[in-house]
Design goal:
The chain contains 13 helices and five strands. The longest helix is centred in the C-terminal third of the chain and has 23 residues. It is of the alpha+beta class. The protein folds into two domains: about 90 residues, lambda repressor-like DNA-binding domains (434 Repressor (Amino-terminal Domain), Orthogonal Bundle), CATH 1.10.260; about 170 residues, Beta-Lactamase (2-Layer Sandwich). Helix 4 runs antiparallel to helix 5 and helix 11 packs across helix 12. It has a five-stranded antiparallel beta sheet, with helices on both faces.
Length: about 280
Amino acid sequence: MHRAELADFLRRRREAIRPAEAGIADGPRRRTTGLRREEVAMLAGMSVDYVVRLEQGRSSQPSTQLLGALARALRLSDDERDHLFHLAGHRPAPGDGVARLARAGLMRMLDLLGDTPALVLSDLGEVLAQNRTSLLLMGDLTRFTGDRRFVTYRWFTDPAARAVQPGEEQEQHARRLVADLRAAAGRRSGDPAVAGLIDRLQVASADFRRLWAEHEVAVRRADRKTLLHPRVGPIVLDCETLVTPDQHQQLLVLSPADERSRERLELLRVLGVQEFAADVSSGP
């Protein structure tokens, strides 16, 4: 473990990233151009004290799980992520053929969308980046590892993933996910990352096997769904999906479909701002 180099790398990456790139509002009273340590800790799901010790070269060796969380919080590229692992004395995880970094143009779109929830996903359904409002609405969807990184895998293997939508909408949503994965498999014929994901899904879920056998194909572009939020209640969202020319990444934009949903989304933003301010003020 190269403590001094690791500390310098983390500090410089934190100072280089703009708050908006991490989905954090850049207020007029902000004194630094980069992220605060408290914000990195919040995004990575670790204590502020540990972030401080890492940047001061006083920490114990971080686990691969913590390094992965830091890489996501700091929006590191694949090369930067590998370098982070090497500095911490770990071997980087092997590549799996899946894009892990949102394209710069899509990140700028996240910034421009402001208070409108938006996400960047790979063509296999891994969430690569979220803006602040999306985090408040759905939580951090970039935190998952292994096959659980993929939206479709979580939907068919984790009941909690389905519980966020009303029962009467779940069959239609499941069909959209499978049809979109079928389209991605067609575009990436022969890709072992895609074939492996599909094989594991068929082993894990009878429901997936049933829908996969129907051979429906469709790229998700526009639909409407209801999200059952535990704090503000149901929010009806219109979902627009914009794809890059090579169709390897998607920008998913979620807008409230009616006035009640708009009011609930606004309440969620207010609650989130208040809680973040309270978290920061209670720090060291």
